[in-house]
Structures are given as structure tokens and as C-alpha cells.
Sequence to fold (129 residues):
Amino acid sequence: MAKFLSQEWLDETRKMADGQPERMGATARLQYVLTTAPDGGELRYYWVVVDGKLLESGLGDLEDAEITLTLSHADATLIQKGELDANAAFMQGRVKVAGNTPKLMALLPVTQSPEYKQLQREINEVTEY
Fold:
């Protein structure tokens, strides 16, 4: 099992996401900033999504990120576990967004697809929280 949001976890989940369907236009360079990480500081990681496919992910900062999402580590955990809907968290202001909001809005429907929900369950089975 890989620890949630470790580089090992990011690498493994990227491989697991290979089977996701192509979604034309669902493309963005995303920077995540998690506040109140377990060590008390911030945890920063990124995703590069092209047509619904997660092509790149890693710890740290992404040069030329189009969207920065800031949320608490606790909310990120709840979202990954499926206990907090990403769309609801965004609408409730629990996820702060900077950058290209229309690009983010094009990605949000992906999180409601049956394929994404199945991937989320599979990832949870191999994740240590």
C-alpha cells in the first residue's frame, strides 16, 4: 500500500488511471496546495491532464500551472475517499481556485463519471491514509 499523496502513490495512481476514457477538451495543468498537512505545513503536488488522461503527476510545483487548487489536507482525503464530492467542495468554498476557472469547470464532470468513481474505489483499496 502506498501512503496517500506520497510520490509512490502519485506514480501508482497515474498508472491505474491509464484505462480512463478519453475526454476531448478535459485538459489542464493543475497545481494542488494542501494546507494543514500532517507535518503541519503545506503539501504541494501537481497533475497534468490531457483529454481526460492523467499524463504527469508529482510532488512539488508545476511550472506554468493553469489552475491552482487550495484545500485542506483533511478535505483532500475526504474527496479521495469519496466521502466529500469534489463539485460540492468547490461550490461550498472548501476548495479555493486561482487561475483558469473555465478549464476547471470542463474537468469537474469527469469526477461524476462511472469510470472515475470505479477508479476512485480501486485507488482507495491500495491507499494508506
Observations:
- The chain has a mean pLDDT of 94.
- The two ends are 10 Å apart (CA to CA).
